Amino acid sequence: MTEAIFTLSAFGDEIAVKLHDQLDVLVDLRIGYLELRTAWGKNVLDLDDDEADKVAGLCAHRGIRVSAIGSPLGKSPITAPMAEELRKLDRIMRTAEIVGTQRLRVFSYYPPDISTNTRYDEYVESAAERLAQLADHAARHGYTLMLENEKEIVGDTVARCAAILRLLNRPNVTFVWDPANFVQVGEHQVTERGWPLLGDAIGYVHIKDAFLADATVCAAGEGDGQVPELLRNLRAAGYQGFLALEPHLALAGHSSGFSGPEGMAYAVKALRRVMAETGCVEVSG
Fold first, then answer.
1. What confidence tier does 257 reach under pLDDT thresholds 50, 70, 90?
2. Which of 73, 165, 179, 261 is found 20 to 30 A from 172 (Cα to Cα)?
3. Is the pLDDT of residue 256 over 80?
4. Domain of 234: which CATH number?
5. Structural domains in the chain (count)
6. How much is the pTM?
């Protein structure tokens, strides 16, 4: 069996607004990768080439690499024109090229009514069709799309994420497992129930946890997201990839979150403790 390899990354904008402050903390925490979502308060989708060059230069200077682009692709109405979605993808791919990653995080679109998810199944096929267009376009340029589960998005539950991925069936699409996001849509025993359906598709993991009782976010292993069980399963499966910290400990917004330097340090310590307890060995990038 292939030996598991776990590499830590983190959302820098969870630490600070300014990129150099983000990188300083990552260096102090011995984390060699950044998941790029915003820099200087500007979403990655809105960075121009000069700003992306600046990101690349600052990262290189501090010895930090970009693990993935935490893009907002797919956090838009399922009825939005696909031409606009493809334009956004082109911009994201250009930034990814400059900063040196081929991994692009995406979502599976807002259905018309997000007041309840009781009718989300009706939009699974449409979401998969839209994502297939993005995936095929990305594949022509050598990029991988990483589909994340998220509340108020068609792909919110284990079952709907599995259905979307089954319909997509694209080699350049993998799954981003976010334990807290599953808990926040009421998924009980999510690793136990979800692994048989999604385990083989996981290509990346976001690390935050949450409580079923009130959906509040907490550090890895403190909530109901079955993070230790997830890590054990990943280790047994020979997972080779990233655990990207997205703690949301100070602020848990729908499109971003914030933890501050102290919160990120706490989240990293919690994750490393769970990794030690589950026999998951961390390697540097």
1. low
2. 179
3. no
4. 3.20.20.150
5. 1
6. 0.95
